[in-house]
Each structure stands twice: as structure tokens, then as C-alpha cells.
Design goal:
450 residues; 19% strand; globular; 6-stranded mixed sheet; binds nicotinamide-adenine-dinucleotide; alpha/beta
């Protein structure tokens, strides 16, 4: 297989021309990116339907809508973000002024997964463009229709030396990783995240790693159970549970467990029964993933759902009860429409158990008690999350989104995206109207004068 040296050379020459640093050029590029999405809505929806059986509604709210909002927000703030930022100057440097300049790294490599194949490739690109970089995108091979469409659209919208899409699998990514990029932004699994970081280390290339893991969802005895049920059912089963921040398992207080589960089943039926019946539920991306997720159904007992079809690669929204930490379903990120339920008596149990495992990407707390909320927030480290909701924190441009520990390194969205694709260059502008003598060593009794 041919390498990517030539592509990188062309991008590097283009970056060196300085064109991408021009703010008007960035604004024009972001505007074109928005137009590209808006004018190809039907084609995008059709590709997502073929790859994942995503409904038009889901395609809009979880892919295109998020991107259009991110572009709008970035365009609104880009002139402000790109200004050198004046900061305070220490007393010892009297006469000088201090600034932070945001400068683009150069060429960014963006590697994305299949679960939100458009959104997770283009959202980082918005940050890369806003910060003035060139970019190479490597979307997932498991959603070929969307990746192919994206490659064609990007190719029509931008010159290859500015933004380019490389299609292919792990082997292609390995070839790309042989080249020296100036920044690598990876979204995907923990296992591959480690491969990426190792490859980046060879060139000392900085990385953002948006990874996954098991995200707990806690339902306390004082929660508004009806609302909790609806918001959990939505966040878990949207995209058939193939969402990095989907609640991976429930921790429900034992006093309200039965009542909650009754309401929860009603909510699942209310939101998804017709969709599943009409064949409009998102499918599992591949047979391998289908076999993996259905394999987890033998953990505990099925309290709801549990049916699946290998022909259509679909699995019904499913609740598993009588699950323990020793069961297979608790050993890996589920990434499918299967939700195990654990119960607890006291919060100390939850805190201890969750802290024994890798730091989650997200955590959700359903409770009316501020004290309980704060206890959990202050006792468990996790990427981010919601109180009395699920998933919604990732759609705010004011909240940097990312993991911690095994769930990731770095955070993006809104200003965060601009910042991670920018080097912060600190500059001290010194006065020439006077020159303080204290710093120089060749004075008599220099130390005594300090
Ligand atoms: P993955 O890690 O298998 O693949 C991601 C990308 O890496 C793909 O483009 C793939 O081609 C490439 N890749 C795969 N193996 C590789 C290798 N050995 N060397 C180099 N590149 C390789 O992830 P996935 O299955 O596409 O996505 C699911 C995972 O992504 C889940 O763990 C999920 O939690 C995580 N995820 C995280 C976020 C987030 O924002 N934190 C968002 C979505 C998904």
C-alpha cells in the first residue's frame, strides 16, 4: 500500500503558505462546511440509514444539527478567540506587557469511529479549521456509505492540500501514523487509543483521545422517577445504545427499584415500541458487534426486551436484572441497547465499586438531594455528566467534553475545540524606554540590592 508522504508534503506546503491562518479564510471554510451539510441533508440521511438504519430524526438531532450549531457558535466567536489575549504582568517585570497568542499546530490527523460517523469526524474538524490548521480525516471503515459520501463532499468543498479524507481500515491508519502530524485527534476505543498514543509518541505529537468505558447512571430513592425513567430510556437507547456516553449500567436504590423498573419499562415502550415494530430502530453496526452484544444477554435475567434479529442486526431495548459485577456484561463497555441494573443500599457502596474501576467517561445522578449529588460528584472522578439527565452535557458548547484516566485525554466542543487545536504561545513585550539594572550580574554587591 502506498504511503501518505506526498499528501502530507502538499498539506505542509499549503500550511506554510500562511493561507489557513487568515481569519477570513477560516470563516469562509467554516461557512462552506455548514453549507455542505445543509445542502446535502438528504444524501447524508440516506447514507446513515444504509450504514446504521438511523432514522432521519436521529440523523438530524445527533449528527447534522449538532454540527450546524457548533459551526454557528464558532463563527460567532472566532474573531474574539483568535485575538492575542492580554494577561497580567508580574511586578518584577514592570514596564512590560504579556500576551497569549493562539497559533495553529499545522497538520491535524482526525481519526473517528462509526457510531456517529459524520458528527465525530466533522466536529473536531470545526476546531481544527477555526484554529487555522490543515487536516486529514480518517473516518471508520464500518460505516462505508457515510465515509464515502463525506470523502466526496469534503473533496468538492476543500482543496486536498487543506482538508482531505482518507478512507480505509486499521492498516490505512497505521500507514498514516507513520507520518509526522502536528496534532492527532482520536475518537474510539480504549485499546486503539493506546495504539494511537504510542505511535504519536514516536514523533512527540500531542494528542486528544476521546475514548469510552462503562458510564454509570445512579437513581437515588428521592429521584423524580417518571422523569428519570424517560430521560434514561432516551439516553440509553438512542442510536441503539451505541453512544460513548450512554448510561452503561444502572445503580438503583433498592427502596425504589421495583417502582422505578415498572416506570422505566413504560417509558421504553412509550418511546421505542412503535419504532422497533416499524423497523426504524437503529441497527448494530456489524455482525461482529451484534454477536458480541447478544452474547452479553446471558448475564443475569432478562426483565424487558431481549429479542434480536441477525438478519436485520437489531436488538430490542433490553433490561437485565439480577446482575453482579462478576457477570460478563459488567466486564466491558456494552455499546448496545442492553442495560444491566444493579441495586444499592447506601451511597458508600456505589462510590467504592465505581472507584475500583477505570474512571468513567460519563456519570449520571438522578436525585433531588443536593447533598447526595455533591457527595457523588466529590467522591468519584469521571469525564463529565449530568444531574437529572443523560447525555445532554455533550451538546453544550460551553461545556468542554472529554474523559479522564482511561476514558480519555483532553476535551473539546465550543471554545475547547479551538483551544485544543491551538498552541498557546506566551509572549512578553518588553519596554525599551528604560532598563532595570537588577537582573544583570556584573554590578557591585548585586545580591545585596535584591
Ligand atoms: P475503534 O477504536 O475500533 O476505531 C476507531 C478508529 O480507529 C476507526 O477509524 C478505525 O479504523 C481505527 N482503528 C481501529 N483499529 C486500529 C488500529 N489497530 N490501529 C489504528 N487505527 C485503528 O472504535 P469504534 O469501534 O469505531 O468505536 C467505538 C468506541 O469508541 C467505543 O469504545 C466508544 O466508547 C468510543 N467512542 C468514544 C467517543 C468519545 O467522544 N469519547 C465517541 C464515540 C465513540
Amino acid at each position: 500500500m502506498e504511503g501518505f508522504h506526498h499528501l502530507l508534503k502538499r498539506q505542509r506546503d499549503f500550511f506554510q503558505s500562511g493561507k489557513t491562518k487568515d481569519i477570513s479564510y477560516r470563516i469562509e471554510a467554516l461557512t462552506s462546511l455548514g453549507d455542505m451539510i445543509r445542502s446535502n441533508e438528504t444524501e447524508i440521511m440516506s447514507a446513515l440509514k444504509k450504514d446504521l438504519n438511523k432514522s432521519d430524526f436521529d440523523s438530524y438531532i445527533t449528527e447534522m444539527g449538532i454540527l450546524l450549531e457548533e459551526i454557528r457558535f464558532t463563527l460567532k466567536h472566532i474573531r474574539d478567540w483568535t485575538q492575542p489575549r492580554k494577561v497580567k504582568t508580574a511586578m518584577t517585570q514592570i514596564g512590560s506587557k504579556s500576551y497569549i497568542y493562539s497559533e495553529p499546530y499545522g497538520i491535524a490527523l482526525i481519526i473517528s469511529p462509526w457510531n456517529y460517523p459524520l458528527q465525530l469526524a466533522i466536529a473536531p474538524l470545526i476546531g481544527a479549521i477555526a484554529a487555522g490548521n490543515c487536516a486529514v480525516l480518517k473516518p471508520s471503515e464500518l460505516t462505508p456509505e457515510t465515509s464515502k459520501l463525506m470523502a466526496g463532499l469534503i473533496n468538492k468543498t476543500f482543496p486536498e492540500e487543506y482538508v482531505s479524507v482518507v478512507q480505509g481500515d486499521a492498516e490505512t491508519t497505521q500507514l498514516l501514523l507513520k507520518e509526522k502530524f502536528d496534532y492527532i485527534f482520536f475518537t474510539g476505543s480504549v485499546t486503539v487509543g493506546k495504539v494511537i498514543m504510542e505511535a504519536a509518541a514516536k514523533h512527540l505529537t500531542p494528542v486528544t483521545l476521546e475514548l469510552g468505558g462503562k458510564s454509570p447512571c445512579i437513581v437515588h430513592h428521592d429521584a423524580n422517577l417518571k422523569l428519570a425513567a424517560k430521560r434514561i430510556a432516551w439516553g440509553k437507547f438512542i442510536n441503539a445504545g451505541q453512544t460513548c456516553v450512554a448510561p452503561d449500567y444502572l445503580y438503583v436504590n433498592k427502596d425504589i427499584k421495583e417502582e422505578f423498573l415498572k416506570t422505566f419499562k413504560e417509558s421504553i415502550n412509550e418511546l421505542y415500541e412503535d419504532i422497533v415494530k416499524n423497523g426504524e430502530f437503529t441497527r448494530i453496526v456489524s455482525e461482529r458487534h451484534f454477536n458480541r452484544v447478544t452474547g452479553l444477554l446471558s448475564s443475569g435475567v432478562i426483565l424487558h426486551g431481549g429479542n434480536s434479529s441477525k438478519d436485520t442486526l437489531t436488538i430490542e431495548p433490553t433490561i437485565l436484572g439480577s446482575v453482579t459485577w462478576a457477570d460478563p456484561v459488567m466486564q466491558e463497555e456494552i455499546f448496545g441497547p442492553v442495560l444491566p441494573v444493579l441495586e444499592y443500599d447506601h451511597e458508600a457502596e456505589i462510590i467504592q465499586k465505581i472507584n475500583e474501576h477505570p474512571k468513567p467517561l460519563a456519570l449520571y445522578i438522578f436525585s433531588e438531594s443536593k447533598e447526595f449529588q455533591e457527595t457523588i460528584l466529590n467522591s468519584i472522578s469521571f469525564g463529565g455528566g449530568c444531574i437529572n439527565d443523560t447525555v445532554m452535557h455533550l451538546s453544550s458548547p460551553y461545556l468542554p467534553f472529554g474523559g479522564v484516566g482511561e476514558s480519555g485525554i483532553g476535551a473539546y466542543h465550543g471554545r475547547g475545540s479551538f483551544d485544543i487545536f491551538s498552541h498557546q504561545k506566551s509572549i512578553l513585550k518588553q519596554t525599551t524606554t528604560f532598563d532595570l539594572p537588577f537582573r544583570y550580574p556584573n554590578r557591585k554587591d548585586a545580591l545585596k540590592q535584591i
